[in-house]
C-alpha cells in the first residue's frame, strides 16, 4: 500500500489497534480522516523491534497505545523499542497513552514520556485515568442476605498479552494489572458473581466518600483521535479525567442507595486509591480534546 498520503494530509498509524481502546480510536479516525494504518501485533510486535520501523514507515503521526505487559523491565524495553523505531522511521509526531502520576503505577510511563521528549518527535502525552466501566459495571452491592456481590465483569481496553486482559494503560500492583483485578479467565466479575449476572440492592463502596475522576473508554478513545487530528501537536501533556462523581451520586442515579463497607478482592485495590484521594484531581483537558463535556457515570 502506498503510504505517502495526499499532499498536506497526515498518514496516521495506531498501535494496539486490535485492543478495546485501539479499535474505537480506529473507528473514530476512519469516520473523520479516512485512511488509517491499524497495527495489531502481527504488523507491529512490541517484542520484535525489527517489525516496528518497517510498520511505521510512511507514518507521520502515530498513536502509541501502551503495552499490556505486566513485567516492568520487559514493558520498559517494549516502550523504548517503539519510541526508537518511530523516530528511526521518520514519524513526525507521536501521541502516547500514559497514565496519572500514581506511585507504583507511573514509573514505566514516566520513562516512556522522557524517551519521547528526547526523541526529537513532536508529541502529545495523554495521561489517562482509570476507566469508569469497572467501577460502575462491577459495583458491589449489598443484598438482603448480607452478601456482597459484583455486577458485570469488564475486560480491559488494550490488546491482550498471552490471554491476559488489562485495564486502562496497563497499571499493575502486586503483579496484577487493574484489568486482571476486574476480569478473570473464569468469567467471574470482581465481586465473584458470574459475568452477566444482574446485581441488586444498595451499592457498597470503600471510597470514604472521596470523589472519583474516571472516564469512559469511548471518551478517551475519541480524545486520542482528537489529539492525532489536531492542527498542531505541540509537545503538551494532557491530564485527562472525567467529571468527578461519588458512589452515593451513582446510587441515586440508579434509584438506590450506597453504603460504606468492605469491598473484598480486586476492586478493593481500586477503591483504596479513591479513598486516599488519588482520584480526586480535575482538569479541563479531556473536555478540551473532546470539544464537549465528558460523560458522567450512570
In short:
It is built from nine helices and twelve strands. The protein is of the alpha/beta class and 298 residues long.
What does this structure look like?
- The chain has helices at 20-33, 49-56, 72-88, 107-118, 133-137, 217-229, 247-253, 266-275, 285-290; strands at 12-14, 36-38, 61-65, 93-99, 122-128, 141-142, 148-149, 172-173, 176-177, 202-205, 236-239, 258-260.
- The chain is of the alpha/beta class and 298 residues long.
- The protein has a domain at 12-130 and 216-239: NAD(P)-binding Rossmann-like Domain (Rossmann fold, 3-Layer(aba) Sandwich), CATH 3.40.50.720.
- It has a six-stranded parallel sheet, sandwiched between helices.
- Helix 2 packs parallel to helix 3 and helix 3 (72-88) runs parallel beside helix 4.
- It starts with 11 loop residues before the first strand and ends in an 8-residue tail after the last helix.
- The model is unreliable at 142-199 (pLDDT under 50).
Find the CATH superfamily of the domain at 12-130 and 216-239.
NAD(P)-binding Rossmann-like Domain
H/E series: EHEHEHEHEHEEEEEHEHEHH
CATH architectural group of the domain at 12-130 and 216-239: 3-Layer(aba) Sandwich
Coarse morphology = globular
CATH topology of the domain at 12-130 and 216-239: Rossmann fold
Mean pLDDT: 81
Structural class: alpha/beta
Instruction: Indicate the low-confidence ranges by residue numbers.
Output: 142-199
Percent of residues in helical segments?
Answer: 25-40%
| Neighbour order of strands in the largest sheet | 2-1-3-4-5-11
